[in-house]
Amino acid sequence: MNPEEKPPGKERETKKIRRLKLLRFYPGDSFLHRLDPRTKLLALVVISIVAFLLSALSVMILVFLFEVLLAVTSSLAKKFLAAVTLVSPLFILVIILDSFFSKTTSGPVWYSATIGFLHPMVTQGGVIFALAMGFRLLAICGISILFLMTTSHDDFIRSLRGMKVPPTISFSLGYALRSTTTLTEETGQIMDAQRSRGLELDRGTIVTNRDKLAALFIPVTVALLKRSKNTADAMLSRGFRPSMPGSGYKTKKFGRPDLLMGLILMALVIVLLAVNSISPA
Question: What is the pLDDT of residues 154-170, one digit of tens each?
């Protein structure tokens, strides 16, 4: 092997780290970037509720394609699709489990067995239902990823202050959003450091890798606790108290893009309800 070439295991770990680092804010001037964070939060809630209430495969695919369209208009298509692959193992697991143990067993039976008290059965209707559940997962995760990629920490806090949210709650939510990016970056750095010491997380199973996972989990936990202490010290040094005066952030205001997004969401819900009504059960 060429010494400059990376082994397959290390190359896969590097790709995992790169995907983790995608979960952060990307500055831009697209339609989605210009939206008020409250509008994007509303879109996240509406799409999540629609995904939970409706179960037709065509509806789930339309919702996911709508999110891909938003990512394309925001020049984030490649980053978005790469970030979505983070949930691909769970996506595959959901499809497999729902295919063998589906609540819908219509259509031809492709496989049936009895294993102890388990009765796995694969039918055409079960596979369609399993695909719908998989795309439901992608739809909910996708809109959450878009929210992270197009919403800055400062704008999110401004929008919360505009809704008269108490300073303690607005700071907590804003800090949680900021910590998502920071934690993924620190996890990537720790994985790089451990890999340089010969730790390979991609080999073996979860059971055999429990010691390796501990070597990753413990440093991440320590880094998280250390960052929390530093943040608490910084807040105390600035006189932060539950009864502190209002923030100096300027509140965000709704604009034409937010009105347009509201109309788009209404039209999307109407289309999805129509598609769900004509889709086979």
Answer: 787 777 777 777 777 77
Contacts from 239-245 at CB under 8 Å and sequence distance 24+? 240/171, 242/168, 244/167
Residue 267's pLDDT is what?
A: 93
Task: Give residue 217's pLDDT.
Answer: 77
Q: 153: which 2 tokens?
A: 């920490």
CA distances from 139 to 30, 160, 176, 209, 223 (A): 21, 25, 22, 31, 32
What is the three-class DSSP state of 1?
coil
Q: Which two tokens stand for residue 179?
A: 């910590």
CB 60, CB 128: distance < 8 Å: no
- Alpha-carbon distance 91 to 109, whole Å? 23
> pLDDT over 70 for what percent of the chain?
79
Amino acid at 134: G
Of residues 96, 89, 131, the one with CA closest to residue 111:
96
- Residue-wise DSSP of 98-163: HHHB-S---S-EEEE--BTTB--EEEHHHHHHHHHHHHHHHHHHHHHHHHHHH--HHHHHHHHHHT
Burial (CB count within 10 angstroms: exposed 0-12, middle 13-18, buried 19+), residue 111? exposed
Q: Are 127 and 111 in contact (CB under 8 A)?
A: no
Q: What is the mean pLDDT of residues 125-141?
A: 91
Give yes or no for a contact between 162 and 145, defined as CB atoms under 8 angstroms apart: no
- Per-residue exposure over 217-232, b if at least 16 CB sit within 10 Å of its own CB, e if not: eebeeebeeeeeeeee
Quote the CA–CA distance of 111 and 153 in Å, as a whole number.
50
Among all chains, which residue has been given the structure tokens 């429990």? 210
Global pTM value: 0.70
The C-alpha R_g of the chain, in whole angstroms, comes to: 22
CB 48, CB 143: distance < 8 Å: yes
